[in-house]
Each structure stands twice: as C-alpha cells, then as structure tokens.
Design a protein that fits this description.
The chain is mostly helical. It is about 70% helix and about 0% strand.
Length: about 300
C-alpha cells in the first residue's frame, strides 16, 4: 500500500536507513579519534617532562628515548639540596628562592590589581560619564601593545629609582598584565547583576560603597574568583618582564628554570623537575576552586 508507514526497525533495515546509520557511526568515530588526538597532543609534552624529571642523566640522553627505566627522585632532591646526589650533576640550591619569589610577586600583583580593579570596573559598569568608553578601551589597549614597548622604559626608570631587582617593582610591572584583564573581566560580571537590585539597595539608604560591598561583590563572587585565579596564572607564567626587570635575588620560577642551562652543561632532569614543581600551585588551585571557575566563566551565558 502506498500510504503505509514503515516501522522504525524496518526503516533502519532499508538501504537509506543503513546509510544514515553508517554516517552517524562514522561521524561519532571521527569525533572520538579527533578528541583523542587533541588530548594526546595537549597532554604528551607534560607527560614527557614528567618522565624526564624521573630519569637519570644517562636515561635522558639515551637514543632512542627510553620509556622503561628505573625512576629516581634525585632531580627533585637536587632542587632543594643543590649538591651531588647519585648520578645527578650538582647545581646551586636557588630554586626554593625562585619559588618563594613567584608566590610573593604573583600574590601581590593579583591583590593590587583586584584592589584597584574592583572600583574601576564598578565605575565603568554602573556610572555614565564623559569618555567612559574611551577609558575602557584605553585599559584594554594595554593588552594589545607588545611588552617590549613597556619593558625598556620600565628598565630605565627602575634603574633610576631603585625598583630594579625588587619584589615591589615587579608587582607594579605585572599590573600591565593583570590590571586591564581584571577591569574588563569584573566589568562584564558587574553588568550581569540586575540594576534593580542596586536601585533597591540605594533606596534603602546604601551608599555607592555599601552597594558595592553588600550587593555587587557577593553576587559577583564566582566572577571575582575566576578573575583572581586567571590573573594569578598570568602572573605565575610571566617570563618577559622578570627576565628584564629582575635579578637572581628576585627571579620567579619561569626565569629561574632556565638557570639550569650553563655554558658547561644543561641539567635537563632538574629543569624538568623544576617545571613540574612550578606547575603544581596552578593545578592545585584550579582543582580546589573548580566549581567557581566553571560558574564564573558561564555567568551571563544564559539569561
């Protein structure tokens, strides 16, 4: 009968149904393979660094590379001890200082950018004044300019005023990294808070500062959390500014890791161990506040 309707199972048994099913299967397989290749491409460098940090010098330089070897923790011990341990070459025990420098500089830079960025972002989000959009674009423009345009003037100024090779000098220089990002991120989060809530708080007698502290900040807590975390990561991973504006007393881990390269040798194992240790704070911080990261990044995505 021409008007008959095929059963779903019968439809899948037809040549056209089998073709559609095959296409769906092929598409699914292609997506899975693509995701696996992307994951391997992303994770393999970190995996290889981890293997290198657990190898003795002979295993690191072996050809072909060894995937099966006797692991050792001497490279990690050498970061702290700075002496000959087993087959690992000696090095200077400066890495703990580099790690502490990164903590001081990154934490200080993020704290300063948050303290300055919250009022600036609130003003750009909630108040109307002449040149508002131009000022907002000016803050963002600092992210577009190459770092070399800032680092040479900063180097000359810091040499004159005594900020070179100091923690507070690097904290101020890092504002070129964190402050524009902080202002724009917080501005977008503050805009998501309904203006009616702010108006109701103002009617109840709250000043602008009271509205900010009692209403805007609590409602924007996930956004502030993700801004702090990403800002901390930007500071922790910064390389160019400390390379030019810091000395050995204030090197962070990013610059300190290359100190294992000398004219005599390259301490690959210790450099790999330093890389793994330097990545741990960011990894642990991200895992601890993962729910805030997800919520903060999706604020305003669905109204």
């Amino acid at each position: 009968m021409s008007g008959a309707v095929l059963q779903p199972g019968l439809a899948a048994a037809t040549p056209r149904g089998r073709a559609v099913s095959w296409q769906k299967t092929a598409k699914t397989v292609a997506i899975v393979i693509g995701a696996f290749l992307l994951l391997a491409w992303t994770v393999f460098p970190f995996f290889w660094i981890l293997l290198t940090s657990l190898k003795a010098p002979g295993d690191i330089l072996s050809v072909p590379p060894k995937f099966i070897f006797e692991p050792t923790l001497d490279n990690y011990a050498a970061l702290v001890m700075g002496e000959q341990r087993g087959n690992v070459a000696a090095s200077r025990p400066d890495f703990p200082r580099f790690f502490l420098n990164s903590l001081i500089i990154s934490t200080g830079a993020v704290a300063l950018s948050i303290a300055a960025g919250i009022p600036a972002a609130y003003a750009l989000a909630r108040y109307e004044f002449k040149g508002k959009n131009a000022l907002a674009f000016l803050f963002m423009s600092f992210r577009f300019v190459p770092f070399i345009a800032f680092v040479i003037p900063l180097y000359l100024i810091y040499q004159r005023i005594g900020f070179y090779n100091t923690h507070h000098g690097l904290i101020l220089a890092y504002q070129l990294i964190t402050l524009p990002f902080t202002i724009w991120m917080l501005r977008s989060f503050f805009l998501e808070v309904p203006s009616e809530i702010q108006e109701a708080a103002a009617i109840d007698g709250c000043t602008w500062f009271g509205v900010l502290v009692r209403v805007i900040l609590p409602l924007s807590a996930p956004g502030i959390a993700v801004t702090v975390i990403l800002g901390f990561m930007f500071c922790w991973n910064a390389f160019n500014y400390p390379l030019m504006l810091a000395g050995r007393q204030t090197f962070p881990v990013t610059v300190g890791a290359i100190q294992f390269i000398s004219y005599e040798q390259v301490l690959w194992g210790q450099m790999a161990a330093a890389t793994i240790v330097a990545a741990l704070p960011q990894l642990l911080l991200s895992l601890m506040v993962q729910k805030y990261i997800v919520r903060g990044l999706t604020m305003g995505a669905v109204r």
